[in-house]
Design goal:
Protein name: Prepilin-type cleavage/methylation protein
Distance between the termini: 44 Å
Strand order of the largest sheet: 4-3-2-1-5
Strand content: 15-25%
Largest sheet: 5 strands, antiparallel
Oligomer: single chain
Radius of gyration: 17 Å
Length: about 110
Amino acid sequence: MIIGVLSAIGIGLFLGQRARAVDASIKSDLRTVATAVTGVLSAGAPVEEASLSKDVRLTPGNAVAVHLDGVKFCLVGRSVEGTQGTQNWVFDGEGLRESDVQTCPGAVLFELG
């Protein structure tokens, strides 16, 4: 009986840790894509899926949607397979945010991942 209770607690903690690990990988991927998009915009080049996908490697199972409005960009990161994170994440000109706090305006230009 005690072993069953302890194992149930342990499994719950393990699953919570995995979801937080997925969140960390999504945040890292968002920062990587943001750096690449900033570099492309600084060079005056168009932000295109082909140029970013050859320079950016995302964590397997993650995807990043790119929204662009002139020289402003907004990114939405999410887990698309395997263990899900606790939520989607948004990266814009003000930094990293939980997706329930802010969403990106406009349509998706393209999605990496």
